[in-house]
Write a structure and sequence with these properties.
Strand order of the largest sheet: 6-7-8-3-9-10-12-11
Number of helices: 11
CATH superfamily: P-loop containing nucleotide triphosphate hydrolases
Strand content: 15-25%
CATH topology: Rossmann fold
Radius of gyration: 21 Å
Oligomer: single chain
Shape: globular
CATH class: Alpha Beta
Helix content: 25-40%
Low-confidence stretches: none
Number of domains: 1
Amino acid sequence: MALLEVEGVNVVYEPTRGQRIWSVRDVDLVLEQGEFVGLVGESGCGKSTLGFALTRMLRPPARLEKGVIRFDGVDVSTLKGEELRRQRRNGFAIVLQSGMNALNPVRNVEHHFGDILKAHAHGGEHYPGATVRRRGAELLDKVGLDASVLSRFPHELSGGMRQRVSIALALALEPRMIIFDEPTTALDVIVQKAVIQTIKDLQRENGFSAILISHDLGVVLEATDRVMVMYAGRVVEDQPSKDLVSGPHHPYTEALLRCYADPRADEIHLGGIPGTPPDLSLPQAGCSFTPRCPLVQDICRTLDPPMSPLGHGSAACHVRAPSAAVAEEGVNPVH
């Protein structure tokens, strides 16, 4: 049985009366124990919203409209209060994209560890100061930080150190799954690489499952086993990382790869994606990528393509992964 099984998840934002923004639409996802999956796409495509939905951290005006989120066989989409807290303990955690915003500016790092252990204590557990310091020092060492960091406040740490503290906090309860939401945002290239390497080492040593959310395709390809590409709230391609580089299926994935340059290449040629993503507050007719797609055909404008098996993965494209409906229309695949 997979560790995480997601079926038909939809998330809607309702910021004002009568307005509904479908940020996540009909997402299916399967995550095996110990698997490292990347989730990539342009800003605003729903990546972070999906991450918050999977960990049940959505706040108004966002809400889970429908869908099943099954973690270790338990449907966490229906849990509330203490039941949800109990499932989170040793279950799943999230590392937020900005360490400065994720950490409480008026509490030192030791207090952050104490807050987590106290919040998830059960069965009369008690964590005296010495226990918190010992556990905090162990976790900081795992992410390459000295125990002296425990007495420091967030503003006394660099961006990379704050992000490492956030990762250490996520490890506090030894979760089986961690979602990393843009963990390298606003970090310079050298620090980015160090943080990603730390995440890879921890994932390999501890064996937890992981989802890395990023708009940086290079970071995702370097770190993960499998990549899921999101566009306009939907997953449009799902492939092993090595196959995605050599043979992308969805036209949007191809466009993203043209925006990515391998720094080891002798020659670098960068492209762009014309147009802009659709307004998700408006009804979406057909494939959302149609206005920007060079392969568009008539059926693309009227029918939203389902995810269909293709190669070692799957894609949602009428042209590249024809469905039965496409066959009836007589559309010829483009290779």
